[in-house]
Amino acid sequence: MKPGSRWALGGSGAVVAGAGLASGWLGAVIAALAAAGTPLFVLMAGGTAVAWWLAGSPVNRLAPRVLDEQFAGSPVLVTIPLFTLLGYLLAESKAPQRLVEASRKLLGWMPGGLALVCLGASAFFTTLTGGSGVTIVAIGGLLLPTLRQQGWSERFSFGLVTTGGSLGLLFPPSLPILVYALVAGLDFELAFRAGLIPGVLVLLILGAWAAVVGTKEKIPREPFVASEALAALGLIKWELGLPVVILGGLASGLTSLDESAAVGVLYTLLVVVRVHRDLTWKDVPRVVQSSMALAGAVVLILMMANALMNLVIDRQVPAHVLETMTRAGLSERWQFLIALNVFLLVIGMVMDGVSALIVAVPLVLPLAARFGLSPFHLAMMVILNLELAFCMPPLGLNLFISSFRFRLPVTTLYRAVVPFVGLLTLSLVLVSAVPWLSTALVQPAIDDARAQAEKAGRPPREAWAMECVQADGLAPKPCSESDRVKYATPDAGSDEDEDDALLKQMLQ
User: Are 72 and 66 in contact (CB under 8 A)?
Assistant: First the structure.
């Protein structure tokens, strides 16, 4: 048996043994099936159904959250396949080459110029494709030889392209944000807004580090030529138009989310087939088939995650977890945030991004509600944890993708990513400690909801739903002590009270 096989078998055995000790025979069976390559949606569906049966509850109670309007009627279900197809079309085209070349002309004159090119191009590409693996293969594969030729150290270069694969998850129209919004019941447009400041913060911190290293290693800069910079913008004008088409339709109200995604796919299709001619019409069915296989798996996993959420709520799992945490002394918000980030980091290391979101979010939402966290603050922490987990030794997904792409032992990449992991951790600490970074761009919508509620003479339920995670999304409760005092009447905030007020207005 090869050493690698022995390690894989030993690791699988350790996972199975750990699951058996932690959760009994059912957890051990699920872990063993996972190690054997069983699809995640099968594990989630089968494990949930068996758990319902063991609890003595009718299995037909699994269906409601899968079939209710919040899930089945969500535009995100249509948007996921469309954005997946968009990402595949870009990856199959020569868009990565054009993006890298243009970025060099625009940023190459700055300290650490080529490293900044890698960060910017990776973030842009990951935002549109939603897949770290695609970014490492497409952008990292193009830039790594150039980084080495320019004089960047091997360790920094490998760390940079590996980390670049997880950047961009906080920028619209990020697929992880869409999935989170669906699972958590958030307004996806507001979630997009919330991610802008944390996303820029991450790029600034990593960019500053790249500039410091570039200066220290005396990396030569490329001269800035205005004519070449303008020509570079012309080279990628069609790619730059894609976010404008998608986000412009949303911001103007001309298109809904699913319509914007459809327009984006049509735009991308015309650009890669008719404008740049990177693909032919004969290539399109192959790309569609590949993308729909992935999108179908994501939608199935989402359905099974909603079924799992029923079990979590019915068995009062969050209440039991909270009781255990309280007994262990974790009663303060800062203590919960530390425990939350550790949990999310572990989940993110052992699963791909979408699966980690689907599994973790239903578990942490009820606990976050007990500690009064902002839903957008929580969303940014969860997704930033994914960016960190993708690069975190020893199990980060980016490490294995880079190892495969560049034919290196994965252990070689551990030291390379350490500085970047430290910087991403710093970003996570800042975002966790300063909720304003995640809520600043959402606050106007909250203020507007409050103003409308006061004008109508009713409790600001919509504002409460945006201010703090709610234990029951259908009956939002006040988030601040002042609101609790102000709306502390027996029927304050009830549906009956609002209906009575509406009836009185109609009779006037």
Answer: yes
